[in-house]
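new request in #modeling-help
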Amino acid sequence: MDPSGIFPTSYRTDRRVVRTRWQMAALALFVGLMLAAPYLVSGRIVAILNMMMISAVIAVGLQICTGYAGQINLGQAAFMGVGAYTAAILASKTGLTFLLTIPLAGFSAALFGFLFGLTAARIKGFYLALTTIAAQFIFHFAVLNLPSNWMGGSNGITVPPAELFGLRFVGETAQFYMNFAVTAIMIAGAFGIVRSRFGRAFVAVRDDDVAAGIMGINVAATKANAFLIGAFYAGVGGALWAYMIRFVGVDQFTLFHSIFFVAMIIVGGMGSIVGALVGVFIIRMIQEIIATVGPNIADSVSFLGGDIVFAGMNVILGGVIALFMILEPKGLMHRWNIMKSSYRIWPFPY
Amino acid sequence: MVYFINDIITGALIGLLYALVAMGFVVIYRASKVFNFAQGELVIIGGFIVWFTTMQVGLSLWLSIPLSLVLAGLVGYAIERIFLTKLIGESVFSMVMVTVGLLILLRGLVLLLFGPAVRPFPIIFPLKPLFLGDMLIPMNLLIGGIITVVAAVGLSWFFNRTRSGLRMTAVAEDHVVASSMGISVKGSIAFAWILGSILSTIGAMIFLSGKSLTFLASDIGFAALPVALFAGLESIGGLILAGVIIGVAQSLTTNYLDPMIGGSLGSVVPYIIMLAILLVRPTGLFGWRTIERV
């Protein structure tokens, strides 16, 4: 809802993403702070920010697929893995520049996602969630069992650093700017997609696919598109991941990682791009806290050893998902919007 | 030829074990319309309860098995009370997501409580295989197969013929309609989870008898998933046929195709069958067809 006195007078203004001067100022401040971040905070925090931006790309893709189009997707990590492997193979075998490998990684993941999106034409609800789990298993199987000079098998692939005009993107700061540029493009694209014709079709299919079909929307194509776009984002995120970690292995893309991404959009709020970003921030913060605190606890209860981080993470994220579904199924963005609108119309109740 | 028949029989028996675990999915679905992703974790919790009562407390098997089943039922009831009662009438998405949350929550809890160590599991069924001529059939799978068939026939009679079973079927059809007809949705879901949890514990006993127990054993939940979908989520009797087909297909692939291609295609064959059946017939072999209205 816009604040009082702000109303669009033409379709052009109505379609705007940034609607008020204050929003513009906030966005400029945010982008400015992000650009300055490597000089303001320590290297460790820059590394965390890198991780958050990559997760943000993937979570925004999942948000489009699950939050906007309503297609449950528990295979986002597999799609990310397809992208990461594509980028890794292209970069290490053919030496293509990252300007090409990142989009190609996106397209190959999109193709893989599209195949599973086609099943969505006939299947819906949790059946669909099951086929996306199958995507997860098939990806795992393919990597481990195809000849190991194709995809590295269980050894994984080492990725050469990204390079542009002789400038090598190694170290947190250089990677930060590369990730920031790609993330900014992808998120701007997401805002564009969700307010376009496709985005409105997604929402219509999510709310009621039978009714959407009667209104003339090609439901099967829309669902397949949603998977295609979601997987494209995952693939781009996976390529960034490959360039950041400089190594891809099949253990980085498991069902558990897919569930972490789902947790991000549930916490942030379904059907909101900003919500996905909020969710990424919160879940990654929780992860960092557990990773920092975990080893200290592990010292006192020694029989668990290093597994406490993984175990604690699962307990907390599982609890967070269940709690949010029970108490706040629409996520934090919904709460924030309620607060904002009640502040705007204060002192009136509505 | 003897080996071929032996592979088929072993495959069919493994398929029946999958069917027993899948029965946990179907029972919960059949009485509450919730698809439980955390089924594998229920199996592992059942396994740890059995391990705890026999190896840790030191009870004899005759005492510990009934006690374990009661405890497993209590765990199922507790999960239902804490997480699912509050979601009655909410969307399918919420329910599915809560069980996905449960999947990682329970996995984490098991790791926190018991740690990653490998533990010996009590020998519940005789280790000595049954010899039929040149064929050799694992005893635990054979007894397990018989239990599966008995359980499937019994439960299928219960859900299709008895009054209380039909009530639960109504709940699976529609929560709101069922409760407006005076059927207790809460009671039905609680019963489903208790039963699902007990079936998982029996599955754990058959699967793990005489083997070792780690938290990774929960993967059987995902191995059983294709069986449940192949049969159709509403059919308990159909699980036997689906389990046998998938088990035999998997066994033949592992024994004959895998040596040829040098990979482990056997582990994904159930998923390929599942994807194929979902594309051709989304409701599985014996599932209900529903008509949707706007």
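bot summary: Chain B touches chain A through 44 residues (CB under 8 Å).
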